[in-house]
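Encode chain A's predicted structure.
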Amino acid sequence: MKNLVLHDVSQDSAYRYTGITTFENLAEVTRDYPFEEDVMEKAAIHKQTMMSQQNGISSFVLTLRISPNAEILEDGESLHFTFDEFEIRDGRSKCAVVSMLDPEYLEDNWVRVQVFVLDQEKMNRL
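Encoded structure for chain A:
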């Protein structure tokens, strides 16, 4: 089971949430994700660019589709999404970079995440 923690969350519709999460949490969630070869090639380029910038890693937006049977728990101003199935819809190559970074680069970095709690068929119709 995966556990994504979103902070500063807004619920944009019955199935769409937007918030931010740490690079650490994102790396943990996506550790075993089957990134395609072309995504990994783009990720290598992004990583070189990010590591050469003086202010480090640039922010980006990630879109995830998680299974509709996900458990969603509220914890103060955060939401915890626990799920077993997910798909990265947008932001794959930059997400792949995060999964490749050493732990010291994960600290103090955040990413904006849009989460759709839908099955694949419904997501494709959007």
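Residues 37-52 form the longest helix (16 residues).
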